[in-house]
Amino acid sequence: MKDLHRLWSLLRPYRGWMLGGTLIALITLLANVTLMALAGWFITAMAVAGAAGVALNYFAPAALIRLSAILRTAGRYSERLANHEATFRLIAGLRVWFYRHLEPLAPARLQQFHSGDLLSRIRADIDALDNLYVRVLVPVAVAAISALLFFIFLLLHDPLLGLFGLGFLLLAGVALPIWSQARGQAPGRRLAEDEAELRAAVIDGVQGMAELTVYGANERQARRIDGLGRGLIGDQARLSGDHGLTQAAVGLSANLSLWVLLWLGIPMVHDGGSLMPPQLAMLALFTLASFEAVAPLPQAFQLLGRTLAAARRLFAIVDTKPAVNEPAAPSPRPEHFDIGLRGVTFSYPEAATPALTDIHLEIPEGTRAAVVGATGSGKSTLFNLLLRFWEPDAGEIRIGGHPIASFHGDDLRAHIAVVSQQTHLFDTTIRENLLLASPDAAQDALESACRVAQIHDFISELPEGYDTWVGETGVRLSGGQARRIAVARALLKDAPILLLDEPTEGLDAETERSLMQALDRLMAGRTVLLITHRPAGLDWVDRVLVLDRGREVAHGDSRVIPEATQAPLLRDDAGAVA
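Predicted structure:
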């Protein structure tokens, strides 16, 4: 009930549309039942009048039948229109709501989640929530109101007919949905989990195809995907089978209700004359048509398990507390952009040892510093702390003399440009990827930044130039080309602080040298922090901090740091230190 209550509160902005859709659905259902009942009465009355040779005013019932038909047709169209509009608004609003809760958790709190799992939550799980409105709330409201009206209608003709009619409606509209929900709860939960796991496995298989092939693991991955797919199909088959059974049970309930009505009604026609033959025909067709109100309920409650499982997966993300708490009264933009680290210590959750221990570093505004060390020495952790993705356990980080904890995270990162080892390009054009840094940048600004990054000539030679599609994660570009586009993007941002995370990793010597020349132009006049485990780029910096397992082992001018101290930490990947 708690999950349903939270979902209901999320529907608050769309309750007007929901109410409109429910009313239209109710009118449509009543028009259809009225049409069937009136048609039965009219045809039988015409036959009886013809056999008896008496006159019958057929204008009024014919007009009501035509009105019911028009209302049914218009109602079904209007119902689809209103419910689709409400559903699309709901899904769009839920995605925005979820993303607003998701974004503050990145990257610290999202490291435990696979990208495919997050994709399932923001797409499949949110799509599943529309079942609550379209297939649960609207059908339940319509069924409850219409069942009461149908009971009153039958009760006016005969109390016994009313009680039996209500009993069969409750069997089809209450008992069957309860059974269906109980049967669908476990497979519905598994569907939500298996869909996410299958999507993650497929993404891993596609993106890691080269590595899987090299290590001979592609067959094992294929078997895993096949197993997940079979499990998913098995649960879907069970739900489909149960849906078929419930629909058959609804049909059986409708026919039993009709049989009981005829069993009770025929003697009323023959004996006391409390029912006329046209009325019996009307009630018979009315009874069959009335089960349209409860027919959707078993499947609706069968899917409720999937809906609630999807809701719980979304709430698990939404209820996660961010790793960084934003200040209530953020500091204004700093006037200077020097960086100071004083006794910074940090440990990742559940880590056995600290990632950083008592780190001190001063980078005056406009100077360049490098942090070097082997993989795992804490270099990237330092960047995460500077970007306020994590907060230090002890010590303090200052920018322009202000603790970075006093800045709002977005305001702080607006003054920082990052060129990382893993350059991310979106599946769009080169132009759109560049405009992420400065949405209002003109073409001249784009070309100027790309010239400095030494990528403009390459882009100009492409058939579509800056409108060339780069593919997912920039797959149509080489590593060096993608890295240069990242440099151009950092130039367009024109931030006073520049963070360089292994910018030449994985590049050949010529590309590395060319990229460092571009980076030298990018670093001009900025406060720069470079992290690397290679000597490349150290000639461009003023001071060096050497880390080993999160601890400072050397610190000073880049020209006077003893080579013997640097050498063990700056080995090639083939060396002993990983």
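Summary: The chain has 19 helices and ten strands.
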